[in-house]
């Protein structure tokens, strides 16, 4: 058998079906064959079962299998992709939170440096706690009017005799009314 004729190459083993029948002379060499002549036992050429104008089906078996594999792949990868996207969002949120904490740390360090200054501490004590250094004069404003008397003295008592509770009640109602 030659490889140029389009047939299979010989493996060196005898064919199992050809061992019992004789080979007619001249069939392998191509000496007695004519291109147009039909040999007995040859099949006739196949004629298409469909007319040539018939359309192909919209979905072939391969297309259905391919689409099915794509759907399976997308369903398989949907969970990990979603988790990856959520992880990226979490990383972005944590980075923004870290930046906010860094700014807060910088503000607190600046406040700590300010509070370590003795001049700032004295100024805050005067403003918030009404501390007075020796030699300073303190003026306290009550209801928009200046209080009478010296600083550190108590006002004079109006009446030292106690009144009964009902007179105190009626007096407070009269003061609130008038």
UniProtKB/TrEMBL annotation:
Top-rank taxon, per record: Bacteria
Region (Disordered): 1-55
A Pfam family: DivIC
InterPro entries reported in the protein's UniProt record: FtsL/DivIC
TM stretches of this protein: 59-78
Keyword ATP-binding: no
Biased composition (Basic residues): 1-11
UniProt protein name: Septum formation initiator
């Amino acid at each position: 058998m030659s490889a140029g004729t389009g047939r299979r190459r010989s493996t060196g083993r005898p064919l199992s079906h050809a061992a019992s029948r004789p080979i007619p002379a001249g069939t392998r060499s191509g000496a007695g064959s004519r291109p147009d002549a039909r040999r007995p036992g040859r099949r006739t050429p196949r004629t298409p079962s469909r007319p040539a104008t018939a359309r192909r089906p919209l979905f072939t078996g391969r297309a259905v299998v391919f689409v099915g594999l794509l759907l399976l792949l997308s369903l398989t990868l949907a969970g990990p992709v979603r988790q990856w996207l959520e992880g990226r969002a979490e990383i972005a949120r944590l980075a923004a939170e870290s930046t906010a904490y860094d700014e807060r740390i910088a503000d607190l360090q600046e406040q700590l440096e300010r509070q370590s200054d003795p001049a700032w501490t004295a100024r805050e004590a005067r403003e918030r706690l009404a501390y007075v250094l020796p030699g300073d004069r303190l003026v306290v404003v009550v209801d928009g009017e200046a209080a009478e008397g010296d600083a550190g003295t108590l006002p004079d008592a109006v009446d030292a005799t106690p009144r009964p509770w009902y007179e105190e009640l009626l007096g407070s109602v009269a003061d609130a009314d008038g």
